[in-house]
């Protein structure tokens, strides 16, 4: 008579294990990034996931400018020609600058030369809090450059500035809504 409760307990434990395994498998298979590729830098603390049909290329040489050094550029394009590309969906630029806070704040200000002002909005980018550059149109001047069609995110981490851009002028496969949605999923996978 005492064997029945042990047997019943064993059956319940096995049933619970099977149920949890099924729930776990279903959850994993429906993750929005399931089947995506992973990018991991060997030069700076940076990794993210991206869809396998999105092109990704890496510029291998650091670029030196006065007061800053570009440590790495990852382009969402077939070739890493991030300064000239007409087809790039966007890029990730990692920079070492003398004053990280001053550099990021330098992108904000009132509407002047370019026809709009800009401010920073706090947003989550992967495992860090970052900033989205928000454009404010000038009441009378049309925007000129840089294009408000670019979504620009800044993340300060590891004494570096990570600049992540989506260029809405070059939507991938011409589908604006889907490209933006995919880019936001990519942002959620960033690790710094």
Notes on the structure:
With 192 residues, this protein is of the alpha+beta class. It has 2 domains: 1-30; 33-188, Protein Transport Mog1p, Chain A, CATH 3.40.1000. 24% of the residues lie in helices and 34% in strands. The protein has 3 helices and 10 strands, in the order H-E-E-E-E-E-E-H-E-E-E-E-H. The protein has helices spanning 3-29, 100-105, 176-188; strands spanning 37-40, 47-50, 57-59, 63-65, 68-75, 90-97, 116-125, 128-137, 150-157, 160-167. Strands 3, 4, 5, 6, 7, 8, 9 and 10 form an 8-stranded antiparallel β-sheet that branches. A two-stranded antiparallel sheet has the order 1-2. 24% of the residues are buried. Keywords: Membrane, Transmembrane, Transmembrane helix. The chain crosses the membrane at residues 12-39.
Which labels suit this protein?
192 residues, alpha+beta, Protein Transport Mog1p, Chain A, eight-stranded antiparallel β-sheet, transmembrane, transmembrane helix, membrane
